[in-house]
């Protein structure tokens, strides 16, 4: 009979790296934060637990860059949100609609286009090849002088002054070199799950609202090899159980539901999601018995699949001259939204525009709502 616990001996950790700004998580939010910090002159280290930059957008095949316009021909977000959007398709020579590869409409490439022409031309959005975006993001980071450590998971924090509320002075990481410390002056938590906030003892919340889901590519070869029939051989398949679009009210969602904040639950969600892929492939093969349908590029990042969970994704913990400035992001947005409604003003964020893009362009520091699955509307 094994004991329920074992004791791990205390030991000194090597300080393997140091930087002004350490960004935990190399998804689009972490990359935007790292690039912004590097451009402002800070030394920046990006820690990513996988071996790919881009997070859900690349390793998760979430390959649509949602619009940064208001749907009426006016651009509402710029800065890094726009830069990364354009970068996502910079190398795309030919659009492939079935695969979901499409450039920003011509009207959004023409600086002289009027809002009317842009509104008619389509939304300011793209659909990209995740592998191409991943390569472009990595090149951008290197060009900007951001140091990257892949295969490196943040698993604890340390404070040089050991008291509650004191600044984080080190992140403890694990990678091929073992367990080590990384010294930092500021930390950006862009883990998507608010891991650093959670480890730092910030208030977090987990909700059992994630559903099985998986965006994957299916390659179809019909009669005489890939593309032999003239059809596009690669299709992006969007699989997801209905999820709770109102974030917390339960409306229309279909389980099983997962919290996603422990190893067993996360694995169970992945297994249920892969079941959906197998069922989808069986359906495709039954519909096209003459064709050879193969799965292609399964996501290697897990998808926590209440979409709204992804909105407040970039969490900052900063200590400026002992002043700790933290704003609950969703509360701020709702407040702004209400003020604009009352005074009949146009709020730059509309339901057509993703909130996380809004945060990429606004220099505020936000506090976590959740360590896995943010309850954005209490
Ligand atoms: C199914 C689905 C569909 C979506 N559809 C769209 C869409 O069509 N268009 C759109 O614009 N948005 C969409 N979204 C939202 C969008 O994908 C996310 O908002 C965005 O990708 C989040 O980026 P992020 O960088 O904040 O987080 P993530 O992409 O989750 O990146 C977090 C990164 O941190 C790393 N990490 C996590 N923990 C640690 C740790 N402890 N140590 C080190 N690294 C760590 C992860 O490996 C990952 O690379 C969708 C989301 C989902 C789930």
Describe the structure in your own words.
This protein has 378 residues and is α/β, with parallel strands linked by helices. The chain has helices at 28-39, 79-88, 106-109, 115-121, 130-143, 195-199, 263-287, 329-342, 355-360; strands spanning 15-24, 44-47, 64-65, 126-127, 147-149, 153-158, 170-175, 178-189, 213-222, 234-240, 291-296, 315-317. Residues 306-334 and 347-378 have low confidence and may be disordered. The structure holds flavin-adenine dinucleotide. Flavin-adenine dinucleotide binds next to helix 1, strand 3, strand 6 and strand 9.
Gist of the model:
This protein is α/β, with parallel strands linked by helices. Helix content is 26%, strand content 19%.
How would you describe this structure in keywords?
2 domains, globular, three-stranded antiparallel sheet, 9 helices, alpha/beta, single chain, 378 residues, seven-stranded mixed sheet, disordered C terminus, FAD/NAD(P)-binding domain, binds flavin-adenine dinucleotide
List the helices and strands and how they pair.
Layout: E1 15-24, H1 28-39, E2 44-47, E3 64-65, H2 79-88, H3 106-109, H4 115-121, E4 126-127, H5 130-143, E5 147-149, E6 153-158, E7 170-175, E8 178-189, H6 195-199, E9 213-222, E10 234-240, H7 263-287, E11 291-296, E12 315-317, H8 329-342, H9 355-360
Bound molecules: flavin-adenine dinucleotide.
Flavin-adenine dinucleotide binds near residues 305 and 310.
């Amino acid at each position: 009979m094994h004991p329920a616990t074992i004791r791990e001996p205390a030991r000194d950790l090597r300080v393997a790296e140091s930087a002004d700004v350490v960004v935990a998580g190399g998804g689009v939010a972490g990359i935007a934060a790292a690039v912004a910090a590097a451009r402002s002159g800070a030394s920046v280290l990006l820690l990513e637990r996988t071996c790919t930059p881009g997070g859900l957008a690349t390793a998760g095949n979430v390959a649509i860059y949602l619009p940064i316009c208001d749907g009426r021909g006016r651009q509402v977000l710029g800065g890094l949100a726009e830069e990364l959007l354009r970068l996502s398709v910079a190398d795309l020579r030919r659009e492939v609609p079935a695969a979901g590869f499409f450039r920003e409409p011509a009207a959004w490439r023409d600086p002289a286009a009027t809002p009317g022409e842009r509104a008619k031309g389509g939304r300011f959005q793209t659909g990209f090849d995740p592998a191409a975006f991943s390569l472009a993001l990595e090149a951008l980071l290197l060009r900007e002088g951001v140091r990257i450590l892949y295969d490196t998971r943040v698993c604890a924090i340390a404070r040089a002054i050991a008291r509650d509320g004191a600044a984080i002075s080190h992140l403890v990481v694990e990678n091929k070199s073992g367990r080590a410390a990384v010294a930092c002056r500021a930390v950006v938590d862009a883990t998507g799950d608010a891991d650093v906030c959670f480890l730092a003892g910030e208030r977090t919340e987990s909700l059992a609202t994630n559903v099985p889901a998986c965006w994957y590519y299916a390659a179809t070869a019909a009669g005489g090899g890939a593309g032999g029939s003239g059809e596009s051989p690669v299709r992006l398949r969007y699989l997801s159980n209905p999820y709770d679009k109102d974030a917390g009210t339960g409306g229309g969602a279909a389980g099983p539901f997962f919290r996603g904040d422990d190893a067993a639950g996360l694995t169970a969600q992945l297994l249920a999601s892969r079941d959906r892929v197998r069922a989808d492939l069986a359906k495709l093969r039954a519909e096209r018995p003459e064709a050879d349908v193969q799965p292609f590029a399964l996501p290697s990042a897990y998808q926590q699949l209440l979409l709204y969970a992804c909105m407040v994704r970039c969490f900052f913990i900063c200590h400026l001259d002992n002043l700790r400035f933290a704003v609950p992001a969703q509360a701020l947005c709702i407040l702004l939204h209400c003020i604009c409604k009352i005074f009949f003003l146009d709020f730059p964020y509309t339901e057509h525009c993703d909130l996380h893009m809004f945060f990429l362009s606004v220099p505020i520091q936000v506090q976590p709502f959740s360590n896995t699955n943010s309850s954005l509307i209490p």
